[in-house]
Amino acid sequence: MLSEIATVTHSTGGENVAERAREKNYDLVIVSLSMRETDGLWICSKLRSFEETRHVPILVVVDDCERGSKQLVRALEMGVNDYLIPPVERLELTARARTQVRRKRYSDRLWENFHLSMQLATTDAVTGLYNRHYMNSHLETLLRHARQASKPLSLAMLDIDHFKPVNDTYGHAAGDEILHEFAKRIARNVRGVDLAARYGGEEFVVVMPDTVEADAKMIAERLRQTISNTPFTLADGTNINITVSLGLACITDDVITTADLLERADSALYQAKHDGRNRVVIAKAA
């Protein structure tokens, strides 16, 4: 009946039918509650328990009898979206199926728009890393947790050396290419728990939770080497050698706010620039 409006996959049941349904991005699942070999209600329950099928609409076919009425009540309590009573007519089935598919696709669009809005609000458009606003708010949480648990927290501030001449010589489009590749190298060389963000312009920040100074220095040195050891290649094939200076700061008793930590890392970064660039400088205790 639905072959004219949809691609239909048919299953006779079985214990793994719900697992098979989660493997594909279905727009609608129709479950017969009168199957003898398989419990249709159990299938509905499994579909609602899986993350992949939790929001997929379910249409059940239920017999018009006392047992069917009880099954239908339980099915609706599980989150089943609609039902049909045999004999099933083509027009009614098509109308109900279309309604559920439209609702799902509308809901999917809402979620996509929501996630896109969240992504735009928290990430930098050029590099794909987190932006400064997200980093600041997240850093406050990390600093508070580190204080409460008496755990270390380190922060590296990075600045691309001589970036203005790159823009002046090759153009801002080339500069964006450099920033994008720079961000990719940073993201590949930090841990999953670390937070990498674009701070502004050619400045970046990497926040390293539960990381003492010695380990943070190793990470910072690895970041410096991954930038300087391999030239950056532009779309037209031009190779450009890029280096980065890093200022590293760790929380101490006199680091009270995120501004204190950022200011200390910034001072160390300034010292790295002053000392000749392409190096890591650790902030001194106040």
From TrEMBL:
<dbReference type="Pfam" id="PF00072">
    <property type="entry name" value="Response_reg"/>
</dbReference>
<dbReference type="InterPro" id="IPR029787">
    <property type="entry name" value="Nucleotide_cyclase"/>
</dbReference>
<dbReference type="GO" id="GO:0052621">
    <property type="term" value="F:diguanylate cyclase activity"/>
</dbReference>
<dbReference type="InterPro" id="IPR000160">
    <property type="entry name" value="GGDEF_dom"/>
</dbReference>
<feature type="domain" description="GGDEF">
    <location>
        <begin position="151"/>
        <end position="285"/>
    </location>
</feature>
<dbReference type="GO" id="GO:0000160">
    <property type="term" value="P:phosphorelay signal transduction system"/>
</dbReference>
<dbReference type="Pfam" id="PF00990">
    <property type="entry name" value="GGDEF"/>
</dbReference>
<dbReference type="InterPro" id="IPR050469">
    <property type="entry name" value="Diguanylate_Cyclase"/>
</dbReference>
<feature type="domain" description="Response regulatory">
    <location>
        <begin position="1"/>
        <end position="101"/>
    </location>
</feature>
<dbReference type="InterPro" id="IPR011006">
    <property type="entry name" value="CheY-like_superfamily"/>
</dbReference>
<protein>
    <recommendedName>
        <fullName>diguanylate cyclase</fullName>
        <ecNumber>2.7.7.65</ecNumber>
    </recommendedName>
</protein>
<dbReference type="InterPro" id="IPR043128">
    <property type="entry name" value="Rev_trsase/Diguanyl_cyclase"/>
</dbReference>
<dbReference type="InterPro" id="IPR001789">
    <property type="entry name" value="Sig_transdc_resp-reg_receiver"/>
</dbReference>
